[in-house]
Amino acid sequence: MFILFALLKKLTGDAQEEAELLIAVAGKDQQALGRLYDLYKRLLFSLCVSILKDRHEAEELLQEIFVQVWQKAAAYNPEKGTAYTWLVSLTRNRAIDRIRSKSWKNQQITDSDPDNKILELIPTEGSNPLHVTVAKQRSTMIQQFLNKIPDEQRSVLTAAYFEGFSQSEIADQTGLPLGTVKSRMRQGLLKLKEMLSGKEDQI
Amino acid sequence: MMNQTKFEELCASFALGALDDNEKQELLRELEESRPEQLETLKSYMDTAEHLPAGVEQTDPPEHIRAAIFKEIGAAPATEQQQDEATPPRQIAPPAWIRAAAVFLAAVCLVLLYFTLNLNSERIELAETVEQQRFEILDLRDRVQVAERYLEIIGSRNTYLVSMDGLEPSPSGFGRVFYDPESRAAILQVANLPASPPDKDYQLWVIREGTPVSAGLFSLDVDDQKRYFVLEDFFEEDFEGVDAVAITLEPEGGVPQPTGDMFLLGSPS
Fold first, then answer.
1. Checking DSSP bridges between strand B242-251 and strand B227-231, what pairing results, if any?
2. Cβ–Cβ pairs < 8 A, chains A and B
3. ipTM above 0.90, yes or no
4. Most exposed: A48, A53, B52, B265, by fewest CB within 10 Å?
């Protein structure tokens, strides 16, 4: 229990530090950008490679993303989410846009976008500190958890999150009933959540 | 309102970014009429989905990406090592105004410390002066009281005067006794006597009809000291018939009859 509290405190502190780094980047602090890059380069580059399936394109995209972070960090609002969430969302959206040959500009979230409206409804307080920072040591464990999820559930999770397919598109591509795709997505995430809850003191 | 399973399927798909616009609108309508626990349900799916990036095989980008980023934003590329070296000072170095304020406060503290020490030194000196003056005042008050008593005794109508001359141990010595029979008090004046040894006291004798009677003890700590002593209840009997007054040096605390050397001797005038 003591270790859990210590870890929670450390991770909460890391999340706070990462948010402060983003705010400093908004103030054109180059050292803060460098620190943020060092913290997130591995995670975001790996995410780019996973989505784009092309290392060279992933390098280009990572560079574009951090230039965009430098230019757009002022848009980050720490009250609406963690630095981790903001950076991962930005990277995932940019990567999926690229594979769909859409420009980033056309995909920017606007006030009328339902994504934005839904996100505004979600409470931000009481966030699990284990979810709000780039915790390097958890990667291996989460890979193990994903491997424990049944293939049919993991495949729909991967198709949606890393390839940007909608549930309808997945149903079309796999020939599965739409209801089955929805059910597998839900069950896959529930299994991951269950494993995370049981092991969160080790993440 | 849709059932819980369908709602959770929408939440899971939204967290994975797999809803099309129509489905997002459907979720939004549901959430606008939702209970707090439904929002928490959506949040828990999103929290879970946030772990997925950590589930891919982790790999580092090439080093030149960092330099390319800093070149593009118009900054000198900083290596990771330089960042590590540069970051701590940035975090701990206070702003210029804080440093200036700290210097100013330190200077103020030093000035206050100087004045405090100075004031404390002056206070100690003043306290010593006050104490010394207090002793001087007490000494003067004693002297004034003795003088007043002296004037009262010698000014009395029936005062007796006995002058004593020095004998062999101290020929230059002399003494006087002023005795007021009304108050039965006397003034003893002695001069040019040697200091009394530590184990000795001078003893005053009143000799009447050949019999010496002790009238008191005194000591002198300095040679040739002129001293005055007020002797209350000096002699209870009538001073008529007193033959002489003498001073001898006796063992400390006195003796019933004189045993030591006689220093002064005189007869009533």
1. unpaired
2. 183
3. no
4. A53
